[in-house]
């Protein structure tokens, strides 16, 4: 359990305990589950070159997420480009750190409130006078977070006199100007993860693949945006096609509904006419009844059926008797003369105008093929 805690402490040491520190620690912890090649591909690997001074030589080590491997041993002092000459291109871009022995530094365990985690280095700067025999101006220092206990944060202060660090840097010669940091070996021989090198003296080597990585990221973002736009375009096209299909079907449905309403109106109108026609006697039955009831000295000039009104106009030798002859018929009722009788000077007969009200429910004509008429003229 302590080894696991130490490993996580090395990943998140000195990174704060706030949200940013937690995210950095979390991403680093996730990176430990990925293969080394994947970590390098995604830029999650934190490999570095360690320079450990021993007597008159310097050991060149490569630290990865899982192990530390020795690459070479070089004599001191080093020239500025000494490492570039012996390192392959894949390793030349790694950050270079000076690895200091534990005997040259002072380490103190400190406990602070968790709220001080985001400004841990500033807070520890006020404790150097009380925790070490030096002032803050006499040492280079760093602090790392070891863990949390409730609302308290366990930390470790690592300090080194400025003169001692300057001597260690001078031993390296020209290679000291390319250092990205100065770390310290702990009791187990592992790097603690602190950086005692002043910020102004730290070298930041440009990754030769950084530009290509940025280009690939930009291409990936553009490809993702293009894919999203294409997906959105396809969705909109499908929605438009579906809307057109629905509109076409809706147009057909509206036409069918209009035709159905028109057909229903025609059926209702025909049914109404059929009911009206069924209520009145057919014209052929009226003609037949009038023919049988008029005397031989009478003839018609006009027979008209308007609605349920029967109008007879003609000449008769005895017009007043026509009312009596027409009474009693089953297909009309209330026969009566309308207007005054006039004597025709040519035929010496009375010109009459006679009306009657057709009765509903009268018997139908004996000729089923006969059609009713609205107006008929007889000589």
UniProtKB/TrEMBL annotation:
<dbReference type="InterPro" id="IPR043129">
    <property type="entry name" value="ATPase_NBD"/>
</dbReference>
<feature type="region of interest" description="Disordered">
    <location>
        <begin position="357"/>
        <end position="379"/>
    </location>
</feature>
<keyword id="KW-0812">Transmembrane</keyword>
<keyword id="KW-0472">Membrane</keyword>
<dbReference type="InterPro" id="IPR007813">
    <property type="entry name" value="PilN"/>
</dbReference>
<dbReference type="Pfam" id="PF05137">
    <property type="entry name" value="PilN"/>
</dbReference>
<dbReference type="InterPro" id="IPR052534">
    <property type="entry name" value="Extracell_DNA_Util/SecSys_Comp"/>
</dbReference>
<protein>
    <submittedName>
        <fullName>PilN domain-containing protein</fullName>
    </submittedName>
</protein>
<keyword id="KW-1133">Transmembrane helix</keyword>
<feature type="transmembrane region" description="Helical">
    <location>
        <begin position="212"/>
        <end position="232"/>
    </location>
</feature>
